[in-house]
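Key result, reporting period 2: structure in, sequence out.
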């Protein structure tokens, strides 16, 4: 199997988290390859020209000309260290996210977190006088707002989940998330204000998402339905779903709802146990139940 075929296989069989990392890396490589071609023919830094049309502007006049940038900016990175750091944190937070929540929620959190970060960036730069002189040239790029949304969401969902960090030992996830939020707040006046503000917009969405989820409302459903609709439009084949029923074992609505409620009680009990004693305190059976629930 060649490298290209292997990458295609990894993408097709990978989780939503792996797909997001693949997309970010692919956009990074493609932008720089196109930029290289432009440089060969014009002598101008082509990657900057390409990035301009994908980056999110704070100026409303420019935003009207490229409304797609509210989505494309969250997959665009400037340099190797920029994308490497973002993908490392995304993988770290996303792996934990998928232990407790499903892939569709991860997809919705990434996209809506990025949109929230972008909107906060735009509104802040147009509201506060300190940005009046630079708003026309301000651009936001990077997956940081989306990454923060994923990290803060799972930290809010299982705050006492412990992570072993080099030199520090076991640290609860809520403290790691709090550290990132505080650093973004105090770093706003020190440079890259737009980036730090966008991070906070993503973090806010992560918190709000978990707050609504604990109250029985998944606010990521809408974006997943939209993505499914778009995928359906571009799909060349329509798959038929076949359901086999065993008349002797078919459950009534009452029995099904009772079973569903019982399963949810088990999951809630396990999450409470994690909150009090950490993930390592779970038995193999409890970990298996969480794993199965995350795939539904």
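The corresponding designed sequence is given below.
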């Amino acid at each position: 199997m060649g490298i290209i075929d292997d990458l295609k296989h990894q993408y097709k069989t990978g989780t939503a988290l792996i797909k997001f990392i693949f997309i970010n890396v692919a956009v990074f490589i493609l932008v720089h390859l196109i930029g290289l071609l432009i440089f060969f023919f014009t002598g101008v830094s082509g990657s900057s020209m390409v990035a301009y049309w994908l980056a999110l502007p704070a100026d409303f006049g420019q935003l009207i000309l490229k409304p797609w940038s509210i989505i494309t900016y969250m997959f665009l990175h400037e340099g190797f260290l920029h994308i490497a750091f973002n993908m490392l944190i995304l993988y770290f937070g996303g792996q934990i996210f998928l232990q407790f929540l499903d892939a569709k929620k991860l997809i919705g959190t990434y996209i809506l977190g990025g949109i929230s970060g972008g909107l906060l960036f735009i509104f802040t730069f147009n509201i506060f006088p300190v940005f009046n002189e630079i708003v026309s040239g301000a651009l936001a790029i990077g997956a940081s707002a989306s990454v923060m949304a994923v990290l803060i969401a799972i930290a809010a969902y299982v705050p006492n989940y412990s992570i072993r960090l080099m030199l520090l030992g076991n640290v609860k996830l809520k403290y790691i998330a709090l550290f990132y939020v505080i650093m973004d707040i105090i770093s706003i006046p020190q440079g890259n204000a737009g980036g730090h503000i966008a991070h906070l917009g993503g973090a806010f969405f992560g918190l709000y998402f978990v707050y609504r989820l604990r109250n029985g409302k998944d606010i990521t459903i809408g974006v997943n339905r939209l993505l499914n609709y778009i995928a359906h439009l571009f799909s060349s084949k329509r798959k038929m779903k076949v359901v086999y029923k065993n008349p002797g074992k078919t459950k009534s609505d009452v029995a099904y709802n009772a079973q569903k409620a019982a399963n949810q009680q088990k999951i809630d009990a396990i999450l409470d146990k994690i909150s009090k004693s950490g993930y390592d305190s779970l038995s193999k059976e409890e970990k298996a139940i969480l794993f199965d629930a995350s795939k539904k």
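DSSP finds 13 helices and four strands in the chain. Residues 244-294 form one domain. This case is discussed further under Risks and Mitigation.
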